[in-house]
C-alpha cells in the first residue's frame, strides 16, 4: 500500500547541536508539505486529493500558506524531501516507521474487499471465506492481505499489481478496481483510503472492510503525519491541532470516502 514506503536508511541523529540544526529547517512562513504528485486519491499535483484538502485545513489553522515539494513515493522520497529540508511534513504516514518522527495518529483505516454490488462475493467479509476460492482476485503484491490470502490457498487465483510504482505513469489500484468493474476480476483486496474514495459514487461497486481478521499481519493501520527526527516542538504543535480539530479532520475524510475504524480496527466509525 501507499500506506508504507519500502526504505532502509540510517536515521538522523537528533542529539546535541544536531537536533537544533534539524529544528531550524522548519519554515515559519509556510506550511511546507512533502507529497507524491500522482498518488490519487490521496495527493495530486492539482491539489484535489484528500491529503491536499487536509493540508489546506492545517495551513488555515496555523495561519500559513500551503506549499509543496513534489516527489514520487518510493526509494528516496524521505531523503529528497523531508530530510533534505525542502518541506516539513508528510501528511499521511503509517505509525511506527523509523524514517520519520510520527505525530499522534489522526485516523485509523483498514483494508477491505471491493466487489460488485449484489454480486456473488458481495457478502464476503474475511479472507478465509471459501467463496473466494477459484475466483480471480486482485491484490497489491507485497501488501499485508496478500500474505494472508496466500496462506488461505488463494495464491493461484491472485492477480497481483506492483506495490511501488511511479504513479505518474502507472495506476495499479485504479487498474484493479476497473477489473472488478468490467468483470475481469471478481474482487480486489485494497487499502481503504485508496479504494474507498474511488468507488464512493459508483453504485455498481462496494467496499467491505476486513474487520473480522484476527491473524497477522493486521488489516488496520493508524495514520500519522511524519516530521523530521528531533523536531519535538513541531510535532507537539501538530498534535495539538489534531486534538483540537479531530471532528473536522474526520468530516473531511468521510466526505472523501475514506473508511474510518476505531483504533483497534474492530468497528467502522459512522
From TrEMBL:
UniProt signal peptide: 1-22
Domain of life: Bacteria
Protein's UniProt name: Quinoprotein dehydrogenase-associated putative ABC transporter substrate-binding protein
UniProt keyword annotations, A-Z: Signal
PANTHER family, per database record: ARGININE-BINDING EXTRACELLULAR PROTEIN ARTP (PTHR35936:SF17), MEMBRANE-BOUND LYTIC MUREIN TRANSGLYCOSYLASE F (PTHR35936)
Gene3D superfamilies: Periplasmic binding protein-like II
Keyword Acyltransferase tagged: no
Domain called Solute-binding protein family 3/N-terminal: residue spans: 30-256
Amino acid at each position: 500500500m501507499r500506506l508504507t514506503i519500502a526504505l532502509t536508511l540510517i536515521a538522523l541523529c537528533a542529539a546535541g547541536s544536531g537536533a537544533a540544526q534539524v529544528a531550524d529547517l522548519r519554515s515559519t512562513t509556510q506550511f511546507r508539505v512533502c507529497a507524491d504528485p500522482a498518488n490519487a486519491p490521496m495527493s495530486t499535483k492539482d491539489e484535489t486529493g484528500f491529503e491536499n484538502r487536509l493540508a489546506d485545513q492545517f495551513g488555515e489553522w496555523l495561519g500559513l500558506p500551503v506549499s509543496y515539494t513534489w516527489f514520487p513515493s518510493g526509494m528516496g522520497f524521505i531523503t529528497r524531501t523531508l530530510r533534505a529540508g525542502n518541506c516539513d511534513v508528510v501528511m499521511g504516514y503509517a505509525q511506527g516507521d523509523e524514517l520519520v518522527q510520527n505525530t499522534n495518529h489522526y485516523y485509523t483505516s483498514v483494508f477491505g474487499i471491493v466487489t460488485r454490488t449484489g454480486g456473488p462475493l458481495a457478502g464476503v467479509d474475511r479472507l478465509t471465506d471459501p467463496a473466494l476460492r477459484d475466483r480471480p482476485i486482485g491484490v497489491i503484491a507485497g501488501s499485508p492481505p496478500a500474505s494472508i490470502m496466500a496462506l488461505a490457498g488463494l495464491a493461484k487465483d491472485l492477480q497481483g499489481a506492483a506495490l511501488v510504482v511511479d504513479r505518474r505513469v502507472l495506476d495499479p489500484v485504479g487498474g484493479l478496481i476497473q477489473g472488478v468493474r468490467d468483470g475481469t476480476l471478481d474482487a480486489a483486496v485494497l487499502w481503504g483510503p485508496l479504494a474507498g474514495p474511488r468507488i464512493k459514487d459508483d453504485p455498481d461497486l462496494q467496499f467491505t472492510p476486513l474487520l473480522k481478521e484476527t491473524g497477522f499481519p493486521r488489516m488496520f493501520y493508524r495514520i500519522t503525519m511524519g516530521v523530521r527526527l528531533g523536531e519535538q516542538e513541531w510535532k507537539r504543535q501538530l498534535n495539538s491541532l489534531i486534538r483540537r480539530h479531530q471532528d473536522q479532520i474526520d468530516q473531511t475524510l468521510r466526505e472523501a470516502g475514506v473508511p474510518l475504524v476505531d483504533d483497534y480496527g474492530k468497528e467502522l466509525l459512522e
